[in-house]
Specification:
Rossmann fold; 11 helices; alpha/beta
């Protein structure tokens, strides 16, 4: 499978798929996954997105099939932005549509703010703008659980809130296994940097047409908190999905993928 030498000891694995008609020339979409995931997190989106776009799904530095990072790695969210810009350069892509879930949301917001010419449109799903304000005391308990019992145990422990009460048991187990494959050194190191994540100052600099999606009973940022920061992105739209998951891209993949395609058709072109 293809990879890109992103620097600082990391080969960045990515998937590059398109299921459009052979005579079509589709635009490119960059799909960015959340913490302890990989590009496989978007599999349920591909029947919808793959027909419309050339879909690039990188495994974030340290995650999935990308090179694991050591426990003491000096994580920088700006470096993650640079990884994705470098990947676009590597693929010869200029501006793309960017879709991001959970902790990839602030990375995508920083990308849109710092490199406006690379982002045609932006879709943010179940995301946050401040690690401290969104996670609060949960962060310490999450790190403790990972340290004592491992990534998969932490994933399974948090999965009901992540995917919501309506999620079937086999999906809960499948996602626990997917996330549990993350290297312990990567996960502990990455989690150490999450409280310092804050892109509230970048919101005013986002120029791309933006769609924000969340559930009405999300356990991370509810409607009021989401609305407060969404309104700071000029011209952005908010889509609220009934439910109590905070990983709306995973719990409602077909609905969110269809809404993403509709939004890009209407405002991203």
């Amino acid at each position: 499978m293809p990879s890109y030498p992103a620097g600082n000891g990391c080969d960045l694995h990515y998937r590059d798929d398109c299921f459009a008609d052979a005579w079509a020339t589709p635009e490119a979409a960059l799909l960015l996954h959340g913490n302890a995931e990989s590009g496989q997190a978007w599999n349920a989106w591909m029947p919808v997105m793959g027909r419309e776009f050339r879909v690039i799904r990188p495994d974030m530095r340290g995650f999935g099939a990308s090179t694991p990072m050591p426990r003491d790695y000096g994580w920088s969210f700006d470096e993650l932005v640079a990884d994705y810009v470098g990947l676009l350069d590597h693929l010869g892509l200029g501006a793309v549509h960017v879709v991001a879930a959970k902790v990839a949301g602030p990375i995508a917001m920083r990308l849109a703010a710092l490199h406006p010419g690379r982002v045609k449109s932006l879709v943010l799903l179940g995301t946050l703008v401040s690690g401290t304000s969104s996670l609060g005391d949960r962060h310490a308990s999450w790190v403790k659980k990972i340290t004592e019992e491992g990534v998969e145990a932490w994933a399974r422990w948090t999965m009901p809130g992540r995917l919501g009460t309506a999620c079937p048991p086999e999906m809960l187990e499948g996602w626990s296994k997917l996330m549990g494959a993350t290297a312990l050194s990567t996960q502990l190191g990455f989690m150490g940097g999450v409280p310092g994540l804050d892109v509230r100052g970048d919101l005013k600099d986002i120029k791309a047409p933006t769609l924000v999606v969340n559930t009405d009973a999300s356990g991370i940022d509810g409607m009021d908190a989401t609305l407060a920061w969404q309104r700071q992105i000029k011209g952005s739209e908010l889509m609220i999905v009934p439910g109590d998951s905070y990983h709306v891209a995973a719990s409602h993949p077909v609905q969110c993928a269809a809404a993403t395609v509709e939004f890009i058709r209407r405002r991203g072109r």
